[in-house]
Design a protein that fits this description.
The chain has about 280 residues and is an alpha/beta fold. The protein has twelve helices and ten strands.
């Protein structure tokens, strides 16, 4: 474990603040240790970047984060990054790496109507990995999907208290629900870690009986398992926010610093990172 502290140290990494939903889940399952949060603010949002740039950037950045923070475990709290670069990242760092993938399997298992929805970024939806999950676990289902970058921005604005009209959120969800068969949908996969930040708003927009499902709890449980920790009630949790790491200026940076502070990450560092994507 970390030479600087007897407590296990976890780095949760995302393009923006969506991974804070994973930090919340870690606290809920009773993670005992330090958590640092890393946001690639200098390259946000990932959903509009090319596969090639992300495949070059994410593993190199994760290696830099491990060198800078010296964690015991790394969580890639981003569906887009995980579906592209998880295995390469595991190959370049010497600690366990937990990825994030769309919760299609549990949604397909839970549906009573046979119709499920996937709300994701366009990048996640176009990945072969996502289609492979559908083929493996949801062949018996009708799977509808909608890719939204706007919902990522709305989630970041909403999280820091900026004005967001519910109609904007409902409009993005309606693009999924209004598809043929959408009136039968009973499970919606939130396949971006930003989207659970809007869970209550999405519930208010949805038809009665629609359940929203994400991978957050499963990720937290996997971290606990790899670290050999027992699941405990959230009232017994002793998660300690450590530091916020960012990569550069962008419209997301100021919001990220504010959201990080609201979650207890008051110590902020910018890491020096030589982006291989920029040299290509």
């Amino acid at each position: 474990m970390s030479s600087r502290d007897d407590l296990p140290h976890c780095v949760v990494f995302d393009s923006g603040m969506g991974g804070l939903t994973i930090v919340q889940e870690l606290a809920a399952v009773g993670f005992a240790g330090r958590v640092s949060y890393a946001a690639d603010t200098g390259f946000f949002p990932y959903g509009e970047k090319s596969d090639e740039d992300l495949i070059r950037r994410v593993p190199a950045l994760c290696r830099a984060l491990v060198e800078a923070a010296d964690p015991d475990i790394l969580v890639i709290a981003c569906n887009t990054a995980s579906t592209l670069a998880l295995e390469v990242t595991r190959a370049v760092v010497d600690i366990p790496v937990v990825g994030t993938v769309p919760a299609i399997k549990p949604a397909a298992k839970a549906t009573q109507t046979g119709v499920i929805g996937v709300l994701a970024t366009p990048g996640t939806l176009r990945r072969a990995y996502t289609q492979a999950l559908v083929d493996a676990f949801a062949r018996h289902c009708r799977v509808l999907s909608h890719g939204s970058l706007k919902l990522v921005e709305l989630a970041e604005r909403f999280q820091v208290g900026e004005a967001v009209e519910r109609e904007e959120i409902c409009g993005e969800l309606e693009a999924l629900l209004s598809q043929s068969g959408g009136d039968e949908m009973d499970q919606i996969v939130l396949a971006c870690t930003h989207f659970p930040l809007l869970r209550q708003e999405l519930v208010a927009c949805a038809l009665e009986g629609v359940n929203f499902i994400d991978s957050g709890q499963a990720i937290a449980r996997r971290v606990m398992s790899l670290l050999g920790q027992d699941l405990r009630a959230s009232s017994e949790a002793s998660l300690s926010p450590d530091r916020l790491l960012t990569t550069g200026a962008s419209p997301s940076l100021e919001r990220m610093i504010k959201a990080g502070a609201m979650s207890g990450f008051t110590e902020h560092h910018q890491i020096d990172f030589d982006d291989p994507a920029s040299r290509a």
